[in-house]
Known about the structure:
alpha+beta
Amino acid sequence: MLLAARNSCQLTDGMLEEGLSFVASYLEKSINRPIIIADHNGLIHYPCISEHFEQVDELFFCSLSAGVQYFYREDDGFLSYPVEYNGTNAYIIIQHLSKKKLAHTFSVLAESKLAIKCYFSNLYKSDQIKMDFEKELAQYLFLPNDKDLESIIALSNKPLDLHAQYCTAIIEFNTDDTQLAWKQICSFSRDYLIMSQLDVITIVWSKSLVLVLPGPSSDTDINILSKLLDLKKNIECRYHLSSTLGIGQAHELYEIKKSCYEARIALTLPRLMGKAVYVQQFSHLQIFSLLFSLNPSNLEIYCKNTLGKILDYDKTNKGDLLLTLRRLLDNCFSWKATANSLFVHINTLYYRINKIQDLLNIDLSKMETRVNLYLAIKIWDTLVYNDNISKP
């Protein structure tokens, strides 16, 4: 008993100094079998997820079915051993363990319980702090507020420099699943990018995973894009999802809200132009990247100066002039295609377009007029979608 207690304390000291791998290495040497250590959500903390995550999913759910008791399956030597912490369990999983080695294995695992409990308890406290930081940062990025970024950064356990370059990438998932395993997706993404030598802050907002990354310089831009594409592909395969990816430009951290705004524009604009699943960098939006670099309030003024009279008409008369003009422009001025898409008679379409020309005092036969209206509508729709202005 004294020897076991001494080993337990030594393992805890080693874990505090060197991490969970210290305990895991001791267990693997003592049991002579590889092990897996996962938390109650099935997130693997040992070994490296890149090597084993596909096989662990099935094994972990086998262990969950056993409840809080250890579970041993004699036909294939599968053992799941729970370690309680903060009202829940972590699990040590061992495969191909012969029955005759169970007694020795239980003795060794018992020695490790204190160290593993300490690891997950400390991690739980750290997670609470991280959750507070991520919640505050998400509200700062997506909601109108007067929050101070410097005080939010003080909540982080990362050494963040307000003047270092960072960019925002947003992966939006095309799903209505309200039970999506966001914590697993965040942890997987964070670990995946860290293994790719990209330190990252992960945030969940709406149906999106928001990644705040060290900003690329001109010579690393392609490398970071490649890693984000690999991550997107791996998430889609692992969680059976489809997604779109929008990437903002790099700015100093104190301007990270601007990069987030750009990533949202990169997500929204291609969708408004008919795309479904895509990857879009804000800097590659051509003329729109220049326009959306302007202050949103200036863009709103431009849109209202250009479209204001038909916006007011629609609001007062519950009309469809903006929708009609949008469809006509999107259909390259094909009257038949536009009438069909609106389910109206061609004469109704003619009447609406004449009304638009009268209200705006324009001639839609002129190309510069069409271009100006097209830009104004796309900007307006994008700003409305991202809550930068109120819907009319």
